[in-house]
Amino acid sequence: MKKSKKNIFIAIILIIVLLCGWLLIFNKRAKPIVLVTERPAYGYIAQSVTATGTIEPVDTVSVGTQVSGTISVINADFNSKVKKGQLLAQLDKSLLQAVVDQDDANLQTQKSSLVLNESTYQRQKMLYTSGAISKADYETALNNYNAARAAVANAQALLRSASKNLSYADIYSPIDGVVLSRNISIGQTVAAAFTTPTLFVLAKDITKMQVEAAVDEADIGTVQKGQRAQFTVDAYIDDLFTGTVADIRLHPKVTSNVVTYTTIINAPNSDMKLKPGMTANIVVYTKEASHAILVSSKALNFVPDSTLKNDYIIQYYIKEFGKHKDTINGKTAYIWVTSGNKISQVRVVTGLDDNNHVQILYGLLPGQQVVISYPIPGNINTSSSILPKPPESNSKKR
């Protein structure tokens, strides 16, 4: 009897297990696939070029000397603010003054000789007219007189040259500006025999700086004068400085087989933070759109497969552009939109693409639900609405 009850109990347990298995196997329904979607929205998008460069003053002047000598006076130092015509330095004038004195003495000698030869010439002229002397004597007197006049002119030229060289001993500032570099010291000898030595380097206005950016040849085709640029420097890593492309120099530079073109970017420097020689990390915005319909770039790569047929009605429908198809410049692409249990293929025209978001020029409305991808394992959130922001709102703008 006990054995019979035990068999009945085991049978009941087996029936329960089989019933549970049947319920799990036959009543379990696969959960529908929930696609990752997002709604298009208006936002900012841009295409840009990155480069590195060096901060330099807009206008610099090298001040040198045209005469050799020893530095005796220095009136300006690094960072000194100078005015146009201000005495910066002075060479020892003793030797130059001696040359002036010698040439002046020579001039006086030649003038005295001219007076003597002129008197002789006038006397010989009178004697020749009266027939008292030969023509040869008259011509000799005339020649001596002309030579004396030429000697005076030569002595005057030498004196002017010596006086000018003496004036070059005073080194004046040619502009209003700031001394960036001082390459001399008192007692130093400078020689101007073959090349003009640089004594000072002056910056005209350091409240206006420029960035000399090295743009790669692969990117230079999209860079144009007037485009907006932003850059950072290591000294003020949290500050974002702005500028404008002012010039693209045609002369290429080749470094390790890499061809770059120097691109000049003007940058205001009213707060004097930018200093010559700083390294700048630059972004040049070649194309921008501040009020564009955007979707994630991944939407362009989504393609439905057979796993969706059980849960969705797939419609391969191409939306026609009508009268707008010939007036919109862009690339044709296909994306999928969902509504309920339907996903439909839509043909769109795309514009800017920053690899994260793409601009939709035509074919899509902001309210439509765009399919981005299949569900991501472990990711519960199946919708996305994160849009890029203009760079001004991401950093402290200067």
Automatic annotation (TrEMBL):
The keyword Coiled coil applies. The chain crosses the membrane at residues 7-26. Residues 102-169 form the Multidrug resistance protein MdtA-like alpha-helical hairpin domain. GO terms for molecular function: efflux transmembrane transporter activity. InterPro entries: Beta-barrel_RND_2, MdtA-like_BSH, MdtA-like_HH, RND_pump_MFP. It comes from the Bacteria. SUPFAM superfamilies: HlyD-like secretion proteins. The keyword Coiled coil applies. Residues 138-165 form a coiled coil. GO terms for cellular component: efflux pump complex. Keywords: Coiled coil, Membrane, Transmembrane, Transmembrane helix. Residues 60-200 form the Multidrug resistance protein MdtA-like barrel-sandwich hybrid domain. Residues 211-284 form the CusB-like beta-barrel domain. Belongs to the membrane fusion protein (MFP) (TC 8.A.1) family. This is HlyD family secretion protein.
